[in-house]
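FORM 12-B: Structure-to-Sequence Request
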């Protein structure tokens, strides 16, 4: 029995469920063409805005490595270390919409079967700013983008009406999703920030505004470490630093918890999982929680800029995974998507030793609600 890696996600057919996320691997036409040739099913462009940005002096991304035999974690390159995470304070694309427009159309003409998602970002503080979202959406879809991803999650924007500052405000999430929905003929994905208390509420707001899918997670708000010798931050410009975003292996379990909260609350909705994926074993976690596609950044950055070896292994290992389970009748992602979701339950439902019972921190007895019920109501 032959396996089928293709997926239909928000009405769009991907030849495989593996995408490069919006980041340096998708910042140029050359990179995106290389990515498609390497085998990625789709890419999300580096976020496109209306105002060109100027990045800080010096490196915009660094990689934290932990020592195997000790407790050391540092950005310094040294032997005997393993990747811990990526840290970045890069802003959105420094190229204009006029620069991107002809390239979107050229890339699509060269690879009509590959999926190009345009990541867009504008402000939300006035009608003019909201109209910018519509301009970006219209131009990208006219040039042939297959879907739009709204960047509501960049963690290092000074502007209070942009990036993760929108993602933290449920009303703004809904409003932005709706203004884009009003002009979009293609699917709209909302990329949410993980840096909120209850991401289910922001996901609900995005769906109410008309989003077709949620992408999660963007990077987690974080600071570089201080060098204990010099007392300087490991990344700084003239001694100064600001918060940036953490990606890579360290955020895999964190992002899974965020994604699980949403996929359990909205089992029939579409989710694109991101965070710490470097292999099929990592991606599988997101699929088992219900995601229909996954996106990769840090692992691709470290593999010849667009991840040719990463995508080769993802395709090979997913094929092998399905072939091994042919006896169960599994042929495609739909045969195992969401299988682990029902295993995530309130703590009070986990077995305890012996016959003792736990009532979710409440006394048992008449008058107290069932702890499982309390959990459902809180959602
Ligand atoms: C250097 C760098 C730049 C990024 N730029 C963007 C961006 O422009 N838009 C966006 O939505 N996400 C951006 N991201 C976030 C990634 O798309 C992704 O959500 C995050 O890195 C988590 O995935 P990972 O663990 O595979 O790195 C960036 C990440 C990095 C490391």
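FORM 12-B RESPONSE
SEQUENCE OUT:
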């Amino acid at each position: 029995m032959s396996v089928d890696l293709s997926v239909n996600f928000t009405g769009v057919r991907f030849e495989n469920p593996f995408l490069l996320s919006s980041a340096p691997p998708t910042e140029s036409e050359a990179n995106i063409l290389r990515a498609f040739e390497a085998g990625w099913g789709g890419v999300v462009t580096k976020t496109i805005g209306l105002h060109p940005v100027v990045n800080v002096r010096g490196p915009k991304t660094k990689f934290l490595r932990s020592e195997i035999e000790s407790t050391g974690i540092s950005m310094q390159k040294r032997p005997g270390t393993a990747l811990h995470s990526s840290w970045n304070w890069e802003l959105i694309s420094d190229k204009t919409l006029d620069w991107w427009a002809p390239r979107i159309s050229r890339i699509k003409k060269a690879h009509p079967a590959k999926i190009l998602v345009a990541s867009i970002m504008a402000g939300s503080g006035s009608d003019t700013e909201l109209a910018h979202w519509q301009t970006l959406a219209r131009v990208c879809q006219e040039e042939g983008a297959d879907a739009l991803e709204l960047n509501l999650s960049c963690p290092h924007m000074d502007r209070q009406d942009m990036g993760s500052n929108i993602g933290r405000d449920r009303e703004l999430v809904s409003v932005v999703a709706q203004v884009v929905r009003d002009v979009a003929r293609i699917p709209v994905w909302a990329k949410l920030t993980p840096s909120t208390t209850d991401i289910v509420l922001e996901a609900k707001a995005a769906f109410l505004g008309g989003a077709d899918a949620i992408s999660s997670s963007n990077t987690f708000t974080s600071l570089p470490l201080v060098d204990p010798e010099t007392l300087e931050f490991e990344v700084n410009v003239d001694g100064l630093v600001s918060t940036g975003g953490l990606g890579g292996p360290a955020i895999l379990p964190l992002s899974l918890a965020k994604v699980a909260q949403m996929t359990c609350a909205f089992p029939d909705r579409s989710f694109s999982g991101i965070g710490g994926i470097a292999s099929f074993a990592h991606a599988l976690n997101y699929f088992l929680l219900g995601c229909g596609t996954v996106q990769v950044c840090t692992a691709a950055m470290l593999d010849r800029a667009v991840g040719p070896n990463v995508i080769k292994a993802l395709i090979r290992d997913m094929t092998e995974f399905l072939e091994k389970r042919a006896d169960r009748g599994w042929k495609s992602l739909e045969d195992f998507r969401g299988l682990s979701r029902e295993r995530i339950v309130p703590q009070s439902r986990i077995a305890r030793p012996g016959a003792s019972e736990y009532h979710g921190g409440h006394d048992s007895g008449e008058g107290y609600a069932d702890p499982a019920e309390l959990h459902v109501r809180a959602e």
